[in-house]
Write a structure and sequence with these properties.
Elements: E1 5-17, H1 18-26, E2 45-49, H2 52-64, E3 73-87, H3 91-110, E4 118-119, E5 131-132, H4 133-146, E6 155-160, E7 177-182, E8 188-192
Length: 203
């Protein structure tokens, strides 16, 4: 399947600690990719597409957990060129991911390794399975190995239905969002500090 180059710029928002936000804006540090085995879209620098409040909410949740690096929740905005994008809102790409899964499963079987599974976080009863070990492994495999021909994928984009229903009987979930994982930092064209009024209404 031919890879599409999305010559499209979107605005993304990244939840982080206030000190990190200051350093990124000052140019003294670079944004670091996340490489957790349970990341939803595989390895990359994560952004909520047009979602400053969701980014801030995530940073608040992280700050409440013991041992986390976020002390003072903050939000960074970024202009992002999607570039060569594995866009999981495109059925051609979700079918590609299915083929990647088959190849990944065969590889694991040949090596006698158990397949990873998506799991709920400890104490969670919602069934969101927020620890996406399987999804992460299949996406990383598809991007790095199964579909690794040039040009390389620079970003991965996906939509997620998350959280409780917005109202009784609804299929609209409170935390649904579009997320971007930037694998190539060159796709981040600019960073900025969004106005607090865009996201602090949560408090």
């Amino acid at each position: 399947m031919a890879k599409l180059s999305y010559q499209r710029t979107i605005i993304g928002y990244h939840g982080c600690d206030a000190k990190i936000a200051d350093r990124v804006l000052a140019g003294t540090v670079q944004m670091k990719p996340s490489a957790n085995a349970y990341d939803w879209l595989g390895e990359g620098i994560y952004f909520w597409e047009h979602g400053p409040r969701r980014a801030y909410e995530w940073a608040i949740d992280q700050a409440r957990l013991s041992g986390r690096k976020i002390q003072q929740p903050a939000v960074l905005g970024a202009k992002i060129n999607l570039g060569v994008c594995l866009d999981l809102l495109d059925t051609a790409n979700t079918r590609l991911l299915g083929k990647g899964f088959v190849e990944f499963r065969q590889l694991m079987q040949r090596n006698g390794i158990a397949m990873p599974k998506n799991r709920n976080a400890a104490g969670s009863r919602r069934g969101d399975r927020v620890l996406r070990f399987l999804d992460c492994a299949v996406i990383d495999f598809t991007v790095k190995d199964f579909a690794a021909t040039e040009p390389r994928y620079q970003t991965v984009r996906g939509v997620f239905v998350e959280g409780r229903p917005a109202f009784p009987g609804s299929k609209v979930a409170l935390k649904s969002h579009i997320q971007i994982a930037v694998r190539d930092p060159a796709c981040i064209l600019d960073v900025f500090r969004p106005a607090a009024a865009e996201y602090q209404a949560l408090e």
